[in-house]
């Protein structure tokens, strides 16, 4: 089966430069038969990046992609606290550059109104929005979104294509939280390969709303693939999760950019 990974980083991968890290990431992907990667955020992260910081991180991803456009796509990292600068960065990297999506992390909760212009612009450009979500029993970071926060955002933007990163961490809650939002798919990346996550996601959302992601280099490709390859779901569901669904979500923007798959 073809495999596309929706959730990869330069952070946590050996290498002194973006080029070295990307080459290493591709080498790891090749071992596991992964055809395409989505990469976002730079070599050194920050929870609440300034415009200068997120531009630098995006430049690192652009450099990492420069020799690997046939294997990888980029998502632009922005901070909704800086609306004007985030929109300019979205235009620079997506409208005028090769990136195909938007990455939102922990600067602001996903239900904050500051995200609306970013999601609206992403939707205009046919870009996918990937929002990190988490539910911690010890309490989330100050701006860290829960799947419930994301559900509120998705309800305001029903035409947006949104991915719920990590299925909320506490995936039994996370999957149910976004179930009513037909424009939201869940990413299986991050966390240990717990039994039942893929089966529940398929049962509650349908296989068409479940996407393979690894969170490499924070997690190994092998451990995250095990969630899908070892799941008790149909072979057709596995095909959709491992590549078909991400191909469908990225299809409109890649077609607009003239990218042949």
Main attributes of the structure:
261 residues, alpha/beta, TIM Barrel, eight-stranded parallel beta sheet, 9 helices, 8 strands
Descriptive overview:
With 261 residues, the chain is of the alpha/beta class. It has one domain (4-256): TIM Barrel. Helix content is 42%, strand content 13%. The chain contains nine helices and eight strands. The protein has helices spanning 18-31, 51-65, 83-95, 116-124, 147-156, 171-178, 197-205, 221-229, 235-256, and strands at 4-8, 36-39, 72-77, 101-104, 128-132, 162-165, 184-187, 210-211. It has an eight-stranded parallel β-sheet, with helices on both faces. Helix 3 runs parallel beside helix 4 and helix 5 packs parallel to helix 6 (171-178). The longest helix has 22 residues, at 235-256. The protein starts with a strand and ends in a 5-residue tail after the last helix. The model has no long low-confidence stretch (mean pLDDT 97).
Summarize the structure.
By secondary structure, the protein is of the alpha/beta class.
């Amino acid at each position: 089966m073809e495999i596309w990974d929706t959730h990869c980083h330069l952070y946590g991968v050996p290498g002194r430069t973006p080029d070295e890290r990307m080459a290493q990431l591709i080498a790891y992907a090749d071992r596991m038969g992964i055809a395409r990667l989505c990469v976002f955020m730079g070599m050194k992260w920050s929870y609440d990046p300034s415009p200068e910081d997120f531009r630098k991180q995006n430049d690192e991803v652009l450099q990492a992609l420069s020799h690997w456009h046939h294997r990888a796509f980029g998502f632009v990292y922005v901070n909704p606290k800086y609306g004007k600068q985030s929109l300019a960065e979205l235009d620079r990297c997506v409208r005028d550059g090769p990136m195909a999506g938007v990455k939102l992390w922990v600067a602001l909760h996903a239900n904050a109104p500051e995200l609306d212009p970013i999601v609206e612009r992403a939707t205009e450009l046919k870009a996918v929005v990937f929002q990190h979500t988490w539910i911690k029993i010890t309490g989330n970071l100050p701006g860290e979104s829960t799947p419930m926060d994301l559900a509120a955002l998705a309800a305001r933007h029903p035409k947006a294509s949104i991915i719920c990163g990590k299925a909320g961490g506490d995936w039994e809650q996370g999957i149910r939280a976004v179930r009513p939002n037909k424009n939201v798919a869940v990413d299986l990346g991050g966390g240990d390969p717990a039994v039942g996550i893929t089966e529940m996601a398929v049962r509650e959302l349908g296989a068409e709303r479940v996407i393979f992601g690894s969170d490499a280099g924070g997690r190994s490709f092998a451990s995250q693939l095990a969630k899908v390859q070892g799941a008790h779901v149909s072979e057709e569901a596995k095909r959709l999760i491992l590549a078909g669904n991400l191909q469908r979500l990225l299809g409109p923007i890649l077609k607009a950019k003239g990218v042949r798959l």
